[in-house]
Amino acid sequence: MFVMETTFPGPSIYKVGWATLPRMAFFQEAPGLGNQFDEDALLGEYLGRALPAPVFAAVRDELRHLGELAGGKLYRMQQDDRLNEPVLTQWDAWGNRVDVIEVSPLWREAAVLAAQHGLVATAYEKQHGEFARVVQFALNYVVDASLDVYSCPLAMTDGAARTLLDSGNRALIEHAVPRLTSRDPARMWTSGQWMTERTGGSDVGLSETIARKVEGSEQFRLFGTKWFTSATTSPMALTLGRPEGNGPGGRGLALFYLEVRDAEGRMNNLAINRLKDKLGTRKVPTAELELQGTLATPVLGLGDGVRNITPMLNVTRTWNAIGAIAGMRRALALSRDYARRRVQFGHKLSEQPLHVDTLAGMAAEAEGAFVITFRAVELIGRSEAGVASDLERALLRMLTPIVKLTTGKQAVVVASEALEAFGGAGYVEDTGLPRILRDAQVLPIWEGTTNVLSLDTLRALAREGSLEAFEREVERSLAIAADGEGLGACVQTVRAAMGRAREWLGEASGETMTVEAGARRFAMTLGRSLELALLAAHAAQTKSVRAAAAARRLARHGVDLVGAPVDRGDAALLARG
Ligand SMILES: Cc1cc2nc3c(=O)[nH]c(=O)nc-3n(C[C@H](O)[C@H](O)[C@H](O)COP(=O)(O)OP(=O)(O)OC[C@H]3O[C@@H](n4cnc5c(N)ncnc54)[C@H](O)[C@@H]3O)c2cc1C
After folding, report:
1. What is the pLDDT of residues 250-275, one digit of tens each?
2. What's the gap in Å between 126 CA and the centre of ligand 1?
3. Residue 212, SS3?
4. Ligand 1 touching residue 194 (CB < 6 A)
5. Spacing, Cα 446 to ligand 1 middle (Å)
């Protein structure tokens, strides 16, 4: 028998062995997850309200099944698979350049699951009509946090299908869309989205990739470097290149379709220089690529590439918001469970008022983020089904950047708070918890940073009727909320913040510097105001005590971030010395 002597804090020396473990020794139970559909009260309430009863009934079992996987088998795989990362093999034993990337076992499982459960396909099938997007994103929301950011290739796949369909390019639609939207794991393709170059991911108009026409063909050869390409294992990609002779900026770029390998499996004149060593999303094989004459087909004309790839970005930004709310939900589910298991000062954390207050703050953020995200999802579904009004389309244009930027920031705050809720364990890698924060941190960066999307919100605003559409959505929600019990303060808080936002716009207008500098505070105010209005309306409609408490909490916290117009002294804060 193994026996050793060891010193524990305190005066005694214990004899420790398998048969004589000290009676005093304490081991903390790890947090656990249950069925991630059944345990999500907000999701159930929301789907009961937003979906017609037959649609909800038709998808409930699948949601429950995915919820079981997410809280069970997939979560366990994710924990076991923690250290497994993508591996790039550039050369084979005989000196051939092969550039093969091996992904983790969980990612391979996710690829099969995504096809079989239609995590992309559901949006393109006619079955659920205008509710297809709500169903699709509900499926993804339930399972996303257990798939190690496999949502990244799925988002781009969805975006590529949407972009090709919108382009009207029949040949490419017939060739690629059935693959992108397939439910057969052997047939389904994912897609990359190769935009960012060393010159900039925000200002992609600076892109240096050259597109050279192949004589006697419709095709082009691309030469350049793509600096951030996730989903590098995807068989196809949409990318941007500048046809020779075109002018500068985004208008001079064209949108191209390409396949990564030829029929024999050889690389299409492109090389993977390396995989990035990143803070988070470590299972995502984000690569730097060299295009060395890559054959590519124009998707839609030979210019306006940035504008033509916009449908892809609108889709991927919505996926980003789904990733944000799924991450918050996971952070909360684990923190809540742990609070019921962890005892300090003689009581469970779940019984200690300040800890409860802390978790409630996280929950309120998550609930606000959820309702605004799914409101955008509803509008996408209605728009794609051809039943959205002009007002709804104008609202969607405003909502897309606002939802992405607001929820991205919330996800980081909630994940950070969740780690603290575990104390030291939240900082220890093999609890699996630090990953949650690292993966959240990418959400405000990719698919457009917070600042870039704040400026995009201003561009959306410049369109006739956009602000009115937004204000009417807020008022529509407040009218519902006003009928709810104990929600008066929520209504007043939103009205005051929206009034202040309008006032700021009036004060700042005409002064580009002032408008730009305040754009983030303005966009966040709109985002948080609508979150509160929608959540209060949800509480009133469903009579949910929990949602009402969350709404009141957001109201107490305040949603007005506009503040005063810019202080011209701010530049001094950045001066050297
Ligand atoms: C893990 C990961 C995976 C990625 N995968 C992909 C991918 O698959 N495909 C792809 O194309 N890209 C991808 N990206 C790239 C990503 O989209 C860009 O990093 C992002 O758009 C920002 O671009 P940048 O890095 O060039 O930063 P910059 O554009 O240089 O921005 C730097 C800072 O300046 C701010 N800024 C920029 N312009 C303005 C302005 N006018 N006013 C105020 N502030 C401004 C930004 O907000 C940011 O804070 C990925 C990035 C990461 C981290």
Report:
1. 999 999 999 999 989 999 999 999 99
2. 35
3. strand
4. yes
5. 6
